[in-house]
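Feature request disguised as a bug report, sorry. It would help if multi-protein outputs had a clear separator. Right now it looks like this:
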Amino acid sequence: MKQLLTIIAGVVVIVSMVVFIFTLRQVREEEASLTDDLERRTALLADSLKESVRPSYLSNATSTIQSVLDKFANRGRLLGLAVYDDDGDLFSVSADLPFNLSDYAAVPKQAMDADSAKGDFLEVQDNGKVYIFAAPLHQDEKIIGVLVLYQRADYIDAAKRQIWKTNLIRLLIQALLFSIAVILILRWIIFRPIITIVDTIRQARAGKVAEGAYTVKSHSFFRPIASEISKMSKSLLLARTAAREEARLRLEKIDSPWTEERLKEFIKSYLKDRKIFVVSNREPYIHKKIKNEIQYTVPASGMVTALEPIMEACGGLWMAHGSGDADKLTVDKNSKLAVPPEEPKYTLKRLWLTDQEVKGYYIGFSNEALWPLCHMAHTRPIFRKEDWIEYRKVNGKFTQTLLSEIKDTRRPVILVQDYHFALLPEMIKKSRPDAEVGLFWHVPWPHAESFSICPWRKEILGGMLGADVIGFHIQQYCNNFLETVGKEIESIADLEKFAIYHKGHTTYIKSFPISVAFTAGADGIPEPKSSLLEDMGIKTKYLGVGVDRLDYTKGILERMRGVEFFFDIYPAYKKQFTFLQIAPQTRKAVEKYRQFNDDVTREAERINKKFQDNDWQPIVLLKEHYTHEKIYPLYRSADVCLVTSLSDGMNLVAKEFIAARNDESGVLILSKFTGASRDLTGAIVINPYSAEETADAIYQSLTMPPAEQRRRMKKMRDSVKNYNVYRWAAEFIRAVTSLG
């Protein structure tokens, strides 16, 4: 519609300009014609009246002159007449002349001075434009006085206005008729076939039978395109059918790679079309108003990165907090919308929280209590009773909404995500014991002694144990959780099965190392490194990259100090190496995060000031959000990727970097305090607290032979490929449904 309006507006503007030019010309011609006619008729009238006025003027017969002037005054457009003597004084004037002549005596004087007839157009108050014409009276070639005629001239302006009005009305009618014609032509001849073609392609992409192209064939204008699309749709449909059949045959083969198609077949075969329900705090798509236009973004979140391809493959319902300022404008009456926006595959249901609930449940308890409690990054957790009350309240709110969604679903499969909803599994099980509930904890689980400082530890553990399966990234977190439960609540632990018996319910504790959709790294043609980095002002030979939310657990400050130490001990790399840190801001409402944002900015400025040389600076800090489409080319261009988290459940940036490197080059520097360091043994593993280790790892990366890079990268790519996010989802869902 926007393109249609643009076309119409463009044409109307051009036509309006043409009409304006022609109307202006017409007005000028009409004005010249009417003016010339008025001047000519006034001059003729003056010549005829002079013969009647002169004898009486010479004989000083004022009454006769007055009768002559009154006789011709107010006839047609003639307002009145006047006679001036040779001294320029008023001799006689017609009755009822509607203005003071003394204000307009310049024209008679000019006529006597020039000894010739003079005319001029003047604006007269309450009478509009008036044409004043003065003709000298002679006696023996001597000027004896002046005869002055006052003609209405406002009809000339009225005629001009009428031309403008008529042409404007004509233009509006023409524009309206033209717009209707253009809309009908474009809609039925162009846009409708295009929409049909787009729908055909969309159906083909979704694996549905695409019949639209056959209809478009009847339109000769698009017949060649429609014909090719029809053939392409058939080929794509056959390819999808073959892929599904292959996925079905590979379903039980352990060594077969997990793909989106295989996961779909697994869900269809294993769940028998049972619906999947995902519950998380963060939504996969956030709608915001940007310059009066609603746009959506995908948040920087490892959880979203992992779950989004699963939901696209399996469908179902994803329930999350609607946090965008335009979220309410994009949902239906049930607070739902189909996503992804371009190609909907599942349903997103948004829940609305009050400012008080967000402050207590999210900012307070989730991010100022549980987050630092689980991440051993030397930040003291803050426990407030009012935050805990809001946390319980919001967990109950999500529970009630979820119960209403699953009321007609038998044995629903519910996948609860992360520490925001530790109480939800038990709440769900109390009302729906038939529900099969899995809780995946995306962050580390601390040692029992560390967790024991939480005042509401027993309630949290009891809520979590309502789940049938609790998943962690690595076995160490499972061990920590079992130890914590054993010390805090009455339960029986089966160490052989890694199960906990509590209040008549069994919960299994399993490790499921989360991953990424490996195929994403092969998409698109790599953009040249020079052109990609040109806009960022990066022109160095070597590039290092870091991609993290601006979070104190990610080790960004420690990473920058490692880069600083690298230039201190390897000064030859100045102006040869640039480190690019992409760090979108997060949790701006939390004081610790606002302070950390300022600390990172100051540290980058300090290091840049220390080493900066002309247009080169060692650290480029970008705080805006980058989509995966923008980040993957940067991964491909980087010589080294730094992941230096101080504490991290898994860290998918490391796996995204590996998935992107289909050239099998580049080096990954990885913190030993990440879950990913257990899987990615080809990385250079460091202690992020040591600037010396970080600096040496950067030097080792930049000097590593290509063959060694390929060996390490191939090893890590095989690991990510063999245990991608589709396999993670299949194993987690299988555990939830088989053990529940």
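(second protein starts here, but nothing in the output says so)
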Amino acid sequence: MINYVKRKDLDVLKYDVCIEKAIQSRIYACSWYLDIVADHWDVLVLNDYEAVLPIPFNRSFFVKYVTQPYFCQQLGVFSKDVISEELQKEMLNKIPFKFLKISLSLNVDNLLVSEKTRRKNYTLKLSKEFSAIHKGFSKGRKHAIKVGEKAGLKLTSVTIDELIEIQSKNYTYQIPKRTLKNLVNVFIQNKKGTVLGVFKDEELLGGGFFINDKDKVIYLYAAFTKEGRKLQAASFLISSMIKKHENSNVILDFEGGNLPNIGKFYRSFGAEEEVYSTFNKAFL
């Protein structure tokens, strides 16, 4: 039986155990993570938490709609055992009609991928020595990293406020700053994340926020100045993280790549494409 459970009525322990042990396990679906990034969220639960489907939603006037939160690339169905495509579809179709619009990104381990709704992500296994991984970089990416090295770029820890300030001054799109700060605070306190800045002498050129999720290091957020882009600070940052985790079972998750230029950038590090889908429905 599939039941709709409100967040306030959720058995958090059983829910989080399901996410932790799920074949499709993702940190994005943990209760504490969703409490930070989602305005509201409820859950569809199969039997006694054998499978769950978190439903993040917003309200606009009197209209409720399901939407993917920021910093939460993949959700979908999570299950302790393999479940059929039919059951996954059944759970998705159980999302109540009170949500007049649904746009929900599933995860790469869900089976419901179609050409109309497919999205791309990129990951890179770091099980080899850096020299071997470096051979997989494109010629252009190797050159870009050399630009940063010749400029004498350095890495050091910075605050997320410093990167948010760079974001505000150098990008046209905005992000939920409070949400990002709350996420960073939790990950830093639990020693599961790091905010790194790229410097040219005393000038901060930008940086990124990386989080740990089991065998993954996720490149969750980044911002760079115009000078940082000129000096290839992003390439230098990513290359440095690859060096740090060489010869390990870590997978670098670029947490994006659906936009062609971004995808091309991640592929230039030798990253592999993975595909997930979005579930869209409208009752308006």
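Even a blank line would do. Unrelated, but nice: The two ends are 28 Å apart (CA to CA).
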